[in-house]
Fold:
Amino acid sequence: MHAEFGDAIVSKELERKHERMRSHPFLFLRASCWRWAEAAPIFCPELMDAPAAPSVGDAHAGNFGLWRDAGSRLVWGVNDLDEAARLPWCLDLVRLCASISLAISDSGAADSLIGGYAAGIAAPRPFVLERDHFWLRDAFAADDAKREEFWAEIDAAKPARTVPEPFRTALIEALPESGLSPGIAAREAGAGSLGRPRFVASCDYRGGPLAVEIKGLMPSCWIHGREPGLAERIAHGRFRSPDPSFHYHERYVLRRLAPNGRKLTFTEIGAALRQRMIAAMGTELAAIHAENEPLRKAIAMDLARREPRWLKSAARRVADWTSGEYEHYRATTG
Structure:
């Protein structure tokens, strides 16, 4: 991170990152994807020969949220692709299942994920929440209090003392019209990305508030799965209905911010909806992996040949290893 961003690195956020990593195994997992990239071949050797697909790379229970597509429709799905890489398709499911196990200790997650994934590979599609999937809309859509809280936080942010010129230029160019004079503030969000330069430009535009975020981007931690431009291609993939403001560039990622762009935690989801939500996460991963028809068929064949408990077994190994890493980290830091 220091090599990538130099003086632009946010040291105070790194301190908070380590505090969060010490607070819970799930947050430790979220902030240490590079360890997963190192350990996946060790803990999941039986999965490494699976067909390689465009993958999230850092799939976990906190990487799903809402956005609006080019038709102003509300869409749900994966909204963080910073660690995108071409990987054996199974690995996204294992990491996601392990994260759910650490977050809520759900013993049925593996079966729900596989069921949702199989349905998604058979018929990949985005989750557009206009005519269908109202249960997802009800679970995620921000109410009036959340909207008020979101814009109050944006308005209260202190202007950034310094903004790297490429970031400032990109933010200004991302606004809907030239001649606007936004305020630019530093922003803290996420877990794994804490410490990277991150800014939000905000202003009133044609009668209401508007905000655009830029975040410094590092190369994917998957050294052997990196592929130039892959995150951008996934974000705007064939079976997605993308956010037209969400773009990956070589050194940064840009997106519009809005109250509905938030990520939802499992603590906010009632137990009755959890298995349905987990299945939907599997379906969304399948839509990302299904790059073309030959790959979709290859994944479907590989999924069908695996024994029924493969995901539960692999996720349990990864969750146990992560818990051990977390305990060691707590014992040796702080």
